[in-house]
Each structure stands twice: as C-alpha cells, then as structure tokens.
Amino acid sequence: MKKNIYVIALMAAAVLSSCGASTKEEAATKKVDEKPRVKLASVTSRPVEQIQEYTATVEAEVKNNIAPNTAVRIDKIYVEVGDRVSKGQKVVQMDASTLTQARLQLENQEIEFKRLDELYKVGGASKSEWDASKTSLEVRKTAYETLLENTTLKSPISGVVTARNYDNGDMYGGQPVLVVEQITPVKLMINVSESYFTKIKKGAKVDVKLDVYGDESFIGQISLVYPTIDAVTRTFPVEIKLANGDQRVRPGMFARATIDFGAEENVVVPDQAVVKQAGSGDRYVFVYKDGKVSHNKVELGRRMGTEYELKSGVESNSQVVIAGQVRLVNGTEVEVEK
Known about the structure:
By secondary structure, the chain is an alpha+beta fold.
C-alpha cells in the first residue's frame, strides 16, 4: 500500500513539473512576441529665429609692449599701472651714457664732413672721398636716432598702462618695461559656424553682455569678417568692436555676444524625442511610420524650452517617438499607446 502511494506521488509531481515548464514557455513566447509600446508626437516645421550666442574674452584694440632693443639700465619710469598715456608721451628714460657717446661721435662726423665738403667744392678732395664721408655721416646719424628711440621710450598709442615689470635702476632683462593697451574701442573675437557664412555682414549690430555687469546690454558692431573657413573646425573668425567711450569694459572680461541671423523654416520636436547615442556625440530621433520606427540621425539647432529645432534628419508632418525608446532599434515594430 505504501509503495502505491509513493508511486502516485511521483506521478503527480511529474505532471505538475510538466505544467510549470509549459507555463514558463508560454510566458517566454508571449514576452518575445510582445511589441514595444511607445508614445508618439506629431511634429511640423515652423519659422525659428536663428539666434546664436558666442562666448569670448574682451581684448584691447591695440596692445603695445614698450622696451628697448638692447640690455640697458633703466634710469626712470614715469608712469604707473592704471595711468592713461597719450601717443608720443615719454614714459621711460633708459641710461643715456651710450647715447651721449653716440652724439659726440655724430658731432665729430658732421664737422669732418663739413671740412671735406669745403675741400671738395674747391677741388681739394675727390668725389669718392666725399661720397665715403657722406655715407659715414648718414650711418652715424641713423645709429644715433635708433639709440635715441631706445633711450627715451615713448608710447606709440594712447591708452592705459596695464603692466610694469621693472623699477628704477633695474637692468632691462627681456620682458617689456611697460605694457600699454588701447581700450577705446575694445574687441571680441568669436568663431562662427560656416553655415552662417553668407548671413553675417560687416557693420551688423551685436548684443553683448558681460558677466561682471549682469543683464546689462552693450551694443557692439561686426568690424571684420575673415574670408576663409577653418577646414578642421568648419568655423570662421569674426571680430566685434565695442566703442567703450566710458571705458567700463576692460580687457580680460568674460563676454557673451548674441547674433540674430533671421528666421529659418525647420522642424521642431519635443526634447523627449532626442536620444544621444552612447559613446558618441551623435543625436537620433525615432520616426514612426506604418507600424515601424526608423532610427534617424539629426542635427540639432536651437533649444527652446522643452523643444529642439532640427536642422536635418526629420521631415515635416512626421510622427516621432517621445517615450519607450529603450527597447527600440532601427526597423522595430511597435505598438502605439493611445
């Protein structure tokens, strides 16, 4: 009797095990056959203002390093950092002992040439002697003038002293004695995408904001558009000038320049539709059609709140996936949630 009960128990366990396996197989089959569920959004093209913001560091219109061309002791520096100087103003006096010697040599050469010139006029000297004396005088004069320029240093521009690297009595050692920068006007240099090459014009107004002044706007003007495009970055340099009559804007400040390139008709999609491909900077959008999705690479334009402008990749009047992209690949059949 006990043996019969044992046999019956084994048979029952086998039947239950078979039923359980069958249930798991059915569940797995059902799971494989189930289509990913997605949510869609209809998208169309519309005019989008092509407003681009560029960051830059404010630069002086002109920056001049004031220094002699030889190692000479500095006699006196007449200005300090922050001082305003005028073009032609004397700012540094270098040691003048060599200049004094050069002046004496020039004076002697002038006397010698004058004497020889008188002899030449009465036939007492040859033309070759006169020419040699004249050349020697000109060489002495040029050397003296060069030495004079490097002994009495003048500012070649009107501007502000932004650096002083020596004190009175120091020996000049390679660094500029002074740095003078012209800050009326100042300029910004930005790099603009080649897609805007035909739209950016010299003289166009530019809105500029400086972090130090918060939301206050300054009006700049495009002063120079470089004629070539960098083959690596696909950008071209553009120079923007600020009049800076009150000199509130200073070199080194961080600036944001905003340029309006007009409006373009482009497709706009919800930001949930844009998917970044892992391991790259590429962006994709899944487009739904006839029960399947296609994996479309897109070029992003402006971000406007919760929407993205697309430069390419999706046609107007398309339906795009905005939820459920995790299980999707190109060509996946999907079920649309109502």
